[in-house]
Amino acid sequence: RHNTFRERAKGERFQWQNRAWDVASALRERSAAQGFFCINMASTGCGKTFANARIMYALTDEHEGCRFSIALGLRTLTLQTGQALRERLRLDEDTLAVVTGSAAVRELYERQLKEQKKQEEPDDNSASDEGFFASHQYVHYEGSVCQGITQQWLSSEPALNRLVSAPVLVTTIDHLMPATEGIRGGRQIPAMLRLMTSDLVLDEPDDFDIDDLHALSRLVNWAGMLGSRVLLSSATLPPALTQALFEAYRAGREAYQQACGEPNRPVNICCAWFDEYGAQSQDVADSGMFQQAHARFVAGRLKNLPQQPVLRRGKLARVEPESTDAQTVISAVAKTLHQYMPELHHAHHSVHKSGKTVSFGLIRLANINPLVAVAQVLMTMPSPENTCIHYCVYHGRHPLVVRSHIEARLDSAFTRHDPDSIWQFPEVKQALESPCQHHLFVVLGTSVLEVGRDFCAD
């Protein structure tokens, strides 16, 4: 029993979590008997990670214990999410397990925590083609392991034993995906044991490519077939994705009821929707009912969103290459970026007491090769008069220790809770010693820039 899950959220921004807790608590018995499919679409920054944990705890009987798995798409978020849950909900080593790519990754991550009290884990690849517990994989869990009937089989796999035993698991989704694959020499058994004994939270499932939808649907289908509750968490869930995953879950739940419940009982799944504006629930018998209920929820959310203050404004910049030749296009992109950087700097910057100006900017490209090519062109272009542009190229192909160092520096520079702290940043101090009046710190990166970051750019 963990009282931190029951603590009422404080502050107006997080009051919605209390409503979510109340609704989930009321659904406890129904969700166990009918199955549970939930959607959390609260906006970024409203505390979805903690709310998801509280919702899953509210759904379970405290006397029987709460067990759930949080599956993420990128290893970047795995240790970060685990650390956040451990600190925010005060979960000890007996409660939370974290599956990472290797012990070396975890060591680098912990060094960063010691240096700056900031959570980040350096790796952006979620693919694991090796066995479920190859030599490079690592489970961080120091609690007691199970002593039941599976102990004899699990005793030869200590990492697997820790994974199955932990009440709360934070992992990349690829470690659960083998549950749906029976062609890997029995390697589906660990993931199946985990799904069979715990509920499932899918964090940011819309980050996956459309080609991954089949695998994602299989996993949700298996969760339904094994009797698990499922929660989807993202502020940007497309209706088609939620509909497909609900249909997969419903088919799985129907099979579960045939095998483990009342065979002739009609499927009537307990569904719930949460966001920062409210919480609602409804029993759903088929895909048509779900589609209508979800559309009503989204329509209500759309009415509330325009009331939020505008934090970001977009502008389209036209890129006009003279031909479709790759190098010509790259040069045109670099030229456009170089044109807009000083303009944006003069509109958004911080002023030092010396009168010099500093700004931090992000340039996000989809793929590494074009990113590097654009960066190479940008670095050959002369800066405007009395202006110095400092570039940082950041992507997933850096060696692990190099990337860890880059992330530590970026976390320090772009976490702007205290705006005046940038003047203590070593790179800024060094830049201010130069005669140039204007200094632009520009990071060129791939998707690693935007997943799980608390970055605040100018």
The chain-level mean pLDDT equals 84
| Spatial sequence of strands, sheet with the most strands | 4-3-5-2-6-7-1-8-9
Question: N-to-C terminal Cα separation, in Å?
Answer: 44 Å
Considering DSSP H and I runs of 4 or more, what fraction of the residues is helical?
A: 40-55%
Strand content: 15-25%
Q: Could you name the ranges where pLDDT drops below 50 across 5 or more consecutive residues?
A: 118-142
Which geometry do the CA atoms define? elongated
Largest sheet: 9 strands, mixed
- What's the helix-strand series? HHHEHEHEHEHHEHEHEHEEHHEEHEHHE
Rg to the nearest angstrom? 24 Å
Continuous helix count: 16
What is the strand tally? 13
Going by helix content, strand content and strand pairing, the class is alpha/beta
Q: How are the SSEs ordered, and which strands pair?
A:
Blueprint: H1 3-6, H2 15-26, H3 28-34, E1 36-40, H4 48-59, E2 68-72, H5 78-88, E3 96-100, H6 103-116, E4 138-140, H7 151-154, H8 158-165, E5 168-172, H9 188-196, E6 199-203, H10 213-225, E7 230-233, H11 239-260, E8 269-275, E9 278-284, H12 287-304, H13 326-347, E10 350-351, E11 357-364, H14 368-378, E12 387-394, H15 400-414, H16 426-432, E13 438-445
Parallel strand pairs: 1-7, 1-8, 2-5, 2-6, 3-5, 6-7, 11-13, 12-13
Antiparallel strand pairs: 3-4, 8-9, 10-11
